[in-house]
Design goal:
- This protein is mainly α.
- It contains 18 helices and no strands.
Length: 429
């Protein structure tokens, strides 16, 4: 018998989260800073640094460093989320992640060997995922369920805003890597300081306090209670929940398909696309990224608002994931500068709508409110893990299948399968 088909016990009576004035703008700033680091460093500065160190082996080396750092990303996100749940606070973890990222980025900008670059990027992934786990948990902590589509859309604007700003900053500082890394470190540390200083931790929901009290009472009668589960099991217990598991799979496949291509865009522009005369790959990135991000911002807002108004999530998530898969054929059919412009716009529309509405969908299938940060941390593995694994996957495709055309096709296939993974979700329309 599949235990996931048995109805879950009723959730505890959780009070509506308290409203905090200015919370959503601060979350937008926090997420924009995070995406600026991921996009600016991951898409421009890190590939540029690796290409300067080992120009002949840049594809394989970027993949190797990305694959190793994936271990840190996938481990630290749920661990930090679980620890912030246990402590009942988010701010200390946000500050620790922000300041730790500043130190890691400063170190990364000061090294000039592949080994030290790999160590530095692993440190940055560990600290950034500590920051991300706590920031992401604030939406289910404090935003009522009926407003999460709108809230997720606003917070989701962090990707187009932060991504655009990050790539623009990185393209301007690609020739001065130390300065570029320090700028991104200051950005993330400042965002952490603003969020924690202006919008302090809210009290835990009533259901979480009841659960904590029950746990304390049960400790006096340990013999009568069930044995404590191993820590690893508690981190991934949300994946035993049917709807959450399928949401996790869909998110992971979609993000992997997207970042397998976007993460290698600098090399694609330099080695695969014929650019206009005089245009360098970093300059091309500075054009393509705003095109993609403006489209992403538009679809993020429209998708989030309409999903709230119509009380529908799955159709928006599935259609946008399918569109993201289909547009990958554009650079295959037309490997030109014009083709890349069209691809960037359509891909931005698809990915923006997906991320905004899928975030709202996931908050509605969390198994237990009192474990929100831990479970969102598990979900963030589907965000962070694929983003870092993507260079490893991309390098394997490019080197074994012979070029960047197969990379677009593989990325498209992953997104299409991610769209199909949304269909089995039962509890959300």
């Amino acid at each position: 018998m599949n235990t996931n088909d048995i109805a879950d016990p009723p959730a505890p009576d959780v009070a509506e989260p308290p409203r905090r004035r200015g919370l959503l703008p601060l979350l937008l700033v926090a997420n924009s800073a995070m995406m600026a680091v991921y996009m600016g460093v991951g898409s421009v500065l890190l590939p540029t640094q690796i290409a300067a160190i080992a120009p002949d082996d840049k594809v394989a080396l970027l993949g190797l460093i990305g694959g190793i750092s994936a271990i840190f990303a996938t481990a630290f996100n749920p661990i930090a989320g679980a620890l912030s749940d246990r402590s009942g606070r988010r701010s200390p973890w946000i500050m620790a992640g922000g300041l730790g990222s500043l130190a890691g980025l400063a170190f990364l900008g000061s090294v000039d060997t592949a080994l030290l670059v790999g160590i530095g990027w692993c440190l940055v992934q560990a600290t950034m995922n500590t920051y991300q786990a706590a920031v992401t948990a604030i939406v289910p902590d404090r935003i009522p369920a009926a407003r999460r589509g709108t809230a997720s859309a606003l917070v989701g604007l962090g990707l187009p805003i932060g991504g655009t700003a990050g790539v623009l900053i990185a393209s301007q500082t690609a020739g001065q890597l130390r300065t570029g890394y320090l700028v991104f470190g200051v950005v993330i540390a400042t965002a952490a300081l603003l969020l924690t200083a202006i919008c302090r931790d809210a009290p835990r929901p009533r259901g979480a306090r009841k659960a904590g009290a029950a746990g304390a009472a049960g400790a006096t009668d340990a013999a009568a209670g069930p044995p404590e589960r191993p820590q690893l099991a508690t981190f991934v217990s949300a994946l035993t929940h049917h709807d959450f598991r399928w949401a996790f799979i869909g998110r992971a496949l979609m993000v992997l398909g997207y970042f397998s291509v976007v993460g290698y865009q600098l090399y694609i522009l330099g080695d695969h696309i014929t650019l206009p005369a005089g245009m360098t790959p970093p300059a091309a990135m500075a054009v393509l990224t705003p095109v993609s991000m403006v489209a992403m911002a538009l679809s993020t807002v429209v998708g989030g608002l309409l999903s709230d108004r119509w009380d529908r999530r799955k159709v928006f998530v599935g259609v946008s994931a399918a569109l993201a898969g289909l547009v990958m054929v554009v650079p295959v059919i037309s490997p030109t500068w014009a083709g890349m412009l069209v691809f960037s716009a359509l891909n931005g529309l698809a990915f923006g709508c997906f991320m905004a509405v899928d975030t709202a969908l996931v908050t509605l299938v969390l198994p237990r409110a009192e474990d929100a940060a831990r479970d969102m941390g598990v979900l963030n593995v589907a965000n962070a893990g694929p983003q870092i694994i993507a260079p490893f996957v991309a390098s394997a495709v490019v080197t074994t299948l012979g070029g960047y055309t197969p990379l677009f096709l593989v990325g498209g296939a992953l997104s299409l399968i991610g769209a199909l993974a949304i269909l089995p979700i039962r509890s959300v329309r």
